[in-house]
Write a structure and sequence with these properties.
With 198 residues, this protein is mostly helical. Strand 1 and strand 2 form a beta hairpin. This is CKLF-like MARVEL transmembrane domain-containing protein 6.
């Protein structure tokens, strides 16, 4: 009886030594998939920063009680609210498995175009609001957070481009495969193997 227990214990230890380095937990059981194929840890933090700065800029702008020329205030309000809500939605979709339920296959292109457009809109609306306000502390603070949010969106675009290239061009950076970069010599090697087999 004791020998059987020792044998089982040895088999269990040997099995755990053999399989533990190569097996991984099931990723579908986790609600947060960071890093994932669409969002790595650095961009996840940058997107959280975008949500934070956009929400603070929106809240500060909402507290402003009067305006001399309200166009700049309303434009800034629209951009900050839109950026906050849609960036939060995009962050939730890309950091969970929810993005698979929509049937959209071009998430990198969507993410890149959205982030670039919001960076431009934030920059323009922040400049307009900075040049046309009453000069109150709340307005200056809102403008400051508008420029910080602009910077966060620009950083996101730069990180995306450096790591993945332009997603909608076929000449973008090659994705890595099996731990190493994809090389252009793979088809030539396949042709050589086929020639040897003939």
């Amino acid at each position: 009886m004791v020998k059987r227990r020792r044998k089982r214990r040895r088999k269990t230890i040997m099995a755990s030594e053999v399989y533990s380095p190569t097996t991984a937990p099931n990723p579908t059981t986790s609600w947060c998939l960071i890093p994932s194929e669409h969002l790595d840890q650095a961009r996840f933090v940058v997107k959280l920063t975008q949500v934070l700065f956009s929400s603070v800029a929106f809240l500060l702008e909402e507290v402003v009680s009067s305006c001399s020329s309200c166009f700049a205030l309303y434009l800034f309000e629209f951009v900050t609210c839109t950026a906050f809500l849609f960036t939060l939605l995009l962050l939730i979709l890309l950091s969970t498995s929810l993005h698979t339920t929509f049937g959209i296959t071009c998430w990198p292109s969507l993410d890149f175009c959205y982030t670039t457009a919001v960076a431009v809109l934030f920059f323009v609306s922040s400049i307009i609001f900075a040049s046309d306000n009453n000069g109150s502390t709340l307005e200056k603070s809102a403008v400051a957070f508008g420029f910080l949010a602009t910077l966060a969106f620009v950083v996101d675009v730069v990180i995306f481009y450096k790591r993945r290239g332009f997603p909608f061009l076929s000449g973008g950076k090659a994705e890595s495969s099996n731990g190493g970069p994809v090389t252009a010599e793979a088809p030539a090697e396949k042709e050589r193997l086929n020639a040897d087999g003939e």
